[in-house]
Design goal:
- The complex is a heterodimer.
- Chain A contains five helices and no strands.
- Chain A is mainly alpha-helical.
- The termini of chain A are far apart.
- Chain B is mainly α.
- In chain B, 74% of the residues lie in helices and 1% in strands.
- In chain B, a hairpin with a 6-residue loop joins strand 1 and strand 2.
- Chain B is globular, with a radius of gyration of 22 Å.
- The chains are: A mainly alpha, B mainly alpha.
- Chains A and B meet through helix 1, helix 2, helix 3, helix 4 and helix 5 of A and helix 8, helix 9, helix 18, helix 19 and helix 20 of B.
Chain lengths: 151, 500
């Protein structure tokens, strides 16, 4: 059974795949010549280089000792990534006063250690702090209540 | 005489009440995030970028710079007290500093770190003041070919910073360069990789990328093994080092300062590299190197001096050439561009108050840090008891607000999530994110100068090697790359030998 370093194999694969994708994009653009480079010239050079580097990393991973990638905190992953998305999706419509608590609830539930009391304290504390500091203190243009809530 | 007049201008700017206030806020925040593990200066500066909208260019850079070097101070505190470097540049300090703390000498270790940093900061600030103007004059002679070669050198140097595989670090740079090209082509206006998204026409938002790969991805990495930090901290007493300690650290501090100042100037250098280099130098020079790792005070003094000197002098390429030496400097460029100040050789002549004010503020900030850190050590120690699960929702919230306020566009927040995921996957696969960010920033600049140089030379690519200055820079880049690859080969060999 041929052994390979999963971590390097995957890393090389990711680079090669992204390189290929960028290369496909570059080929739809005008390449031009070395003298008068078109918009596709530099991307084509770089994406070829990335593809090449990815392949070399993959090739070198063969017959190398395996490395442990380690556990992935799936729950945390989903919830932490959800926090900015939730904030982005609701800040215009609902405003800071609602979008921020929603994002904080998502982020706080990412850790199993956070109890209900801690979570509530975090939501209240952070919302108050952010409204005072960012909205009033620094005057950032963040509406407290969004357009979905204005009648 | 010129220097004195310039410094006088700088101090009069830096001593304005508003600048003093923001300098203090900067170093205070910097120390705070340096103490708190899980959030670094890059993410903090990215989050706070929108705040600088309301400030003058000088004031905002003074504050952001304060965060950067303040973090170096704060990071060493936790490194010494609980063997947990808040910043990667303090990782070396932890080796001997923590041992000193275990031996009941936490006080002298902390004082040594603070005083060495202050001394190095003072010297590096002077160096910055003396070197920057002549370098800026040299930079005025730079053509597109020189800029291109210098950036290649900087990118190659940034590989030194990355842990692990050199090939992976190279690939991260190239990936960063490619991501930097997304958006409208500057010459033809053709849209590249925008998939019809209007939001991408001006490129991917840099702050969103920085917050994603340094803020969000870092939270994810920390969530992997949530263990309770149990900081067992004895009371810190007896701050002052003994006379013997002082005698032992003078030479290491001087060497550390010199090494840090030089490495900091190199694009891609900066605090981390300097600290590591200074530690190994001291170990090599020491008459009894076996003391290192067992609480040698030189092992605290030299790297602390070096990382602070490196942090200061990494402003030289930024202020003279407009080229960022590390991701933090890239954010500084962002902050200047928001104010319509184009970083580069013209800053010193066109914005003298900004240029010299920032330099003078660094010295004042360093003084504040010594005053802030030693007496307030108890406060910082108490902060360490805040559990991480209470900290990261706050980081996530600040990231969201910070990024949104830049353009008021939800799209940037979706980009944060996307880059958080990409950053985390790449970290998991053993790729450091710093080279990616540097590539991202330099991508458009690199392309622009390449295309200009090629038009000027009528398509002759040898121009990068035949023009003397450009050729020298390229030669350096090739040397660095060759040097990097050599130990890489030997390390691989060692691995193979271990398997057999």
């Amino acid at each position: 059974m041929p052994s390979f370093n999963v971590r390097d194999m995957a890393a090389g694969g990711v680079f090669a795949a992204i390189g290929l994708a960028f290369m496909a994009g570059a080929l739809t653009l005008d390449i031009g010549t070395a003298f008068k480079m078109g918009p596709g010239y530099f991307p084509l050079v770089l994406s070829s280089l990335l593809l090449l580097l990815g392949l070399v990393v993959m090739a070198k991973s063969v017959n190398m000792p395996a490395e442990v990638i380690g556990s992935v905190p799936w729950r945390g992953l989903v919830l932490i990534l959800a926090a900015p998305v939730i904030f982005g999706a609701t800040v215009r419509g609902l405003g800071l006063l609602i979008a921020l608590p929603l994002a904080v609830i998502a982020a706080a539930s990412a850790s199993r250690r956070t109890g209900v009391v801690t979570a509530i304290a975090l939501v209240v504390g952070l919302t108050l702090f952010c409204v005072l500091v960012f909205s009033y203190g620094l005057g950032l243009p963040l509406p407290l209540l969004g357009r979905w809530l204005r009648f | 005489m010129d220097l004195l007049a310039n410094l006088a201008l700088g101090f009069s700017t830096a001593l304005e009440p508003i600048n003093l206030l923001y300098c203090f806020i900067g170093v205070f925040l910097g120390t705070l995030i340096g103490v708190l593990p899980g959030i670094g200066p890059t993410a903090t500066i990215a989050m706070l970028l929108p705040i600088t909208y309301a400030l003058s260019p000088a004031t905002s850079i003074i504050m952001l710079a304060g965060i950067y070097y303040g973090a170096q101070y704060g990071g060493s505190t936790t490194a010494i007290l609980i063997n947990l470097p808040g910043e990667s540049s303090s990782a070396v300090t932890a080796i001997d500093g923590y041992r000193m703390a275990q031996q009941g000498r936490a006080g002298p270790a902390l004082a040594t770190a603070a005083l060495s940093s202050f001394f190095a900061g003072t010297v590096a600030t002077m160096l910055l003041a003396t070197l920057a103007p002549p370098l800026a004059r040299v930079a005025l002679k730079f053509g597109p070919a020189e800029y291109f070669s210098l950036m290649v050198l900087g990118l190659v140097c940034s590989i030194v910073l990355a842990h692990g595989s050199i090939l992976k670090a190279l690939a991260m740079i190239v990936l960063g360069l490619l991501l930097g090209l997304v958006g409208r082509d500057i010459y033809t206006g053709d849209e590249r990789y925008t998939f019809g998204f209007l939001e991408l026409a001006d490129g991917i938002n840099f702050v969103a990328v920085a917050v994603g790969v340094f803020g969000i991805a870092e939270i994810l990495r920390n969530l992997e093994n949530e263990t309770d930090r149990a900081p067992i901290i004895k009371k810190v007493s007896g701050l002052m080092p003994t006379r013997a300690d002082l005698g032992a650290i003078i030479a290491p501090v001087l060497r550390g300062t010199a090494l840090g100042s030089i490495l900091g100037i190199l694009p891609g250098g900066g605090a981390v590299l300097s600290a590591f280099a200074a530690y190994s130098l001291e170990k090599k020079l020491s008459r009894n190197p076996e003391r290192f790792g067992k609480g040698a005070i030189e092992g605290v003094a030299a790297p602390e001096a070096a990382n602070n000197a490196g942090a200061q002098t990494s402003f030289i390429p930024l202020l003279t050439l407009g080229i960022p030496a590390n991701p933090v400097m890239a954010l500084m460029i962002g902050a200047l561009m928001i104010k319509n100040v184009i970083p580069g050789p013209d800053v010193a002549t066109e914005q003298p108050a900004l240029f010299w004010g920032v330099i003078a503020s660094m010295w004042i900030g360093n003084l504040m840090l010594v005053l802030l850190n030693l007496p307030l050590i108890g406060l910082w120690v108490r902060l360490l008891t805040i559990p991480y699960y209470m900290l990261f929702p706050a980081i996530a919230a600040f990231c969201a607000i910070g990024v949104y306020s830049i353009n008021g566009n939800p799209f940037d927040l979706y980009a944060v999530a996307a880059f958080g995921l990409l950053g985390y996957v790449l970290i998991k696969l053993g790729c450091e994110p710093a080279p990616l960010l540097l590539g991202f920033v330099l991508g458009p600049l690199l392309e622009e100068n390449l295309r200009r140089a090629m038009i000027i030379s009528r398509g002759n690519a040898t121009v990068f090697f035949t023009r003397p200055l450009s050729g020298a820079l390229m030669f350096l880049a090739v040397c660095v790359l060759a040097l990097l690859l050599l130990p890489g080969i030997s390390r691989k060999r060692q691995q193979v030998f271990q398997d057999e």
